[in-house]
Design goal:
Helices cover about 45% and strands about 20% of the residues. It has about 130 residues and is of the alpha/beta class.
């Protein structure tokens, strides 16, 4: 039964924009366990640049809500201006609730909370792609 489920999982190229080194590496490892190709960066402007350079090659973007410089919601907004179709998952930490209006305006499709749990993370990714 598990083999059938595995064969349906799409292998994706995922851009992960997370500032904290440890969190970024944990998330990348989780994604790579299912064969996903992962490109990482730690700041929003670098993520936008990598997305522009690889336009069309990414299947999913995962963005930390708290990034130095340009924030996660602003990164999402800029990426959605480049490509409306790309699904974006916003990663939120322990901060207060996010503003619904801001989320909608940014183009965020799904929200994921820290800490990362392997099963929940992979399920969310599968739903996004």
């Amino acid at each position: 039964m598990k083999e059938v489920a595995r064969s349906r999982t799409k292998v994706a190229t995922i851009l992960v924009i997370v500032y904290e080194h440890i969190a970024r590496n944990i998330l990348a490892r989780i994604l790579r366990t299912k064969g996903h190709k992962v490109v990482t960066c730690s700041v929003g402007f670098d993520g936008i640049r990598k997305f522009k350079k690889g336009k069309g090659k990414f299947d999913l973007i995962m963005i930390d809500g708290h990034l130095p410089g340009i924030g996660g919601l602003d990164v999402a907004k800029k990426i959605k201006k480049i490509s409306q179709k790309i699904p974006i998952i916003l990663i939120k930490g322990w901060e207060k609730e996010l503003d619904t209006k801001e989320l909608k305006e940014s183009g965020v499709d799904l929200i994921m909370s820290k800490p990362f749990f392997m099963d929940k993370t992979l399920e969310l990714v599968e739903n996004a792609i």
